[in-house]
Amino acid sequence: MTARHVDARAVVRVDARLCRGTGLCQAMSPALFRLTRAGYAIPVDGELYDDDTVRLARSVADCCPMGAVEVLPGDDADATGPESAGT
Amino acid sequence: MTLSAAPPVPLFGSDYFQDPYPVFAWLRDHSPVHAFPFPVGGVRTWLVTRYDDVRAVLADPRFSSEGGTWGNPEFKAAGLVSGAGSVLEKAVTVVDPPAHTRLRRLAMSTFTPRRIAQWRQTVERVVSSVLDACAARGEFDVMDDYAGPVSSTVMGEILGLRIERHRELVDALAQAFPSDAARMDRVPEGFARICGYAEELVALKRRSPADDLTSALIQARQDGEQLTEEELVAMVAAMILAGSDTVRAFVGNAVLALLDHPDQARLLRERPELEADALEELLRYEGALTTALFRVTTEELEFRGTVLPAGAPVIAALLSANRDPRQFPDPDRLDLTRGGPRHVGFGHGLHNCLGAALARLEGQLAVPALLRRFPALTLAVPRGELRYIENWAMRRLVRLPVRAAGEGAA
Ligand code: HEM
Ligand code: SF4
User: Fold this and answer.
1) Of the candidates A20, A23, A24, which has its C-beta nearest B55's C-beta?
2) In this complex, do B357 and A65 lie within 8 Å of one another by their Cβ atoms?
3) Domain-located, residue A17
4) DSSP character string of B139-177
5) So which residues are the signal peptide here (chain B) (predicted)?
6) CATH code of the domain in which A51 resides
7) Above 70 in pLDDT, residue A15?
8) B127-147 as b/e, with b when 16 or more CB fall inside 10 Å?
9) What residue spans define the domains of chain B?
10) Which residues in chain B have their CB less than 8 angstroms from residue A24's CB?
11) pLDDT tens sequence across B311-342
12) Chains A, B: CB contacts under 8 A, how many?
């Protein structure tokens, strides 16, 4: 994933090998996930910028029946630690 | 849509239950969003049968799972609200977000890869001991002697139910999902008994936690939150109710599909690497749930040209979606090598099967194991004598008598 912005809080990914296209992620948040024509999930953007969105993405990851959704710390958050993350 | 149209045989009548596919084919072509009076209370209900539409309904938050909140007065008065008046009223199956998200996260967190790996051993052990019992019988009923004991024993062991309770659980499940439509009056008692076992189990595991799913659910914690006592009982009961008879039904349907298609059964025996794809195809071809549970509209809306009033009950026909030729070429053919687009046998959207990992494990072990153990397996009654239960949501054979040693054997 290329860092288009330096201040992404987190990055969300879907592991294509695990996804079964259940559509739960898209139903929980169409802003974050969509299903491709083949019926599998991909992130709409992938980079998450605020705490609420990160929290939502984590909920989706927790609910996905295949454990296919991953939320990873963004490059910036990684480098500077969570405390410094202002809005 | 023309209004006068009616399907070839009445919906939810005896002929429909024995073979719903011609009705589904007609509905998909002539009335894809079909209004009809639901048999209980004559409540005006809409049945959705095309693949795209089924997925659209199940992914759209305006189609709520909370019948108790959004259902119209006729729906509630007819007693169609699932779990009304019991702990199941707030079960994961029948609540919307945010309550649903909270319950689903907590429950899902217990389905860890480590636990699923353990379940594999449990399922393998149970399958092999039940197969021994079937071998000793020679002639047996796949529903009562194989799929039933496998599914309920696995569920009991996984949850940590005391062994003395296993027999009673089978009994309570038979009451909750009767094979005989005349015994519908005992359904609430079956549900109540299962809630009772769940309550007892939660109390037991609070006192003496062990390495089982109930204990894991008690300990589950996400963002400092845990399941309340009522939520725990409802969750354990929901697992028993959603995860036993469904597996039993599916194993029966899958075995019959393979008996009906000997070439495919041979393929499965000869090419074990096909097992994962085969399982998905068997779930598409004839999964356990004919339809999803009721959805109700939260507002008046237009769906594919049909205006649905607020509070309208809507049923998504999963097995119809799975046979939609718009999605699956030659849909009535069982083809274990099919691959391709995803079926909706486990539902779609927020409420898609939470136990899919366990269901797949049981299906993938139990179905091929039976074929391998009894390579000459045949029906022990004429094909035409097989009957399905008359239940609108579940597709399950009443009995599936088979002979282990094949046709010629005594
Ligand atoms: C082959 C067997 C199975 C089939 C075909 C099946 C099918 C389904 C379907 C279609 C739904 C969605 C219902 C709806 O949208 O209204 C569902 C939900 C559910 N299933 Fe399964 N199921 C199976 C096995 C299991 C097992 C073994 C468990 C338990 C561990 C389980 C637990 C659940 C639960 C708790 C839900 C509700 C999920 C939610 O509301 O978020 N199922 N299942
Ligand atoms: S919830 Fe998980 S399995 Fe389902 S579509 Fe999204 S990523 Fe895929």
Assistant:
1) A23
2) yes
3) yes
4) EEEIIIIIIHHHHHHHHHHHHT--HHHHHHHHHHHHHHS
5) none
6) 3.30.70.20
7) yes
8) beebbeebeeeeebbbbbbbb
9) 14-403
10) 349-350, 352
11) 999 999 999 999 999 999 999 999 999 987 78
12) 54
**Domains in chain A, number:** 1
Interface probe, candidates A58, A63, A66, A69, chain B, greatest B C-beta count within 10 A: A63
Chain A within 8 Å of B99 (Cβ-Cβ)?
no
Q: How far is the CA of A69 from the centre of ligand 1 (A)?
A: 20
Mean predicted confidence (pLDDT) in B264-291: 95
Q: Which residue's CA is the nearest one to ligand 2's atom 6?
A: A25
- Beta-carbon-side half-sphere exposure of residue B174 (alpha carbons within 13 Å): 13
| A15 close to A70: Cβ distance less than 8 angstroms | yes
Q: Is the CATH number 1.10.8.190 carried by domain B14-403?
A: no
- Average pLDDT along chain B: 93
**Whole-number Å distance between alpha carbons of B205 and B220:** 13
Which atom in ligand 1 lies closest to the alpha carbon of residue B363? 1
In a domain, A14, yes or no: yes
Q: Nearest by CB to A62, from B60, B61, B108: name it.
A: B108
pLDDT, one tens digit per residue, over B103-137 is 999 999 999 999 999 999 999 999 999 999 999 99
Write the ipTM.
0.88
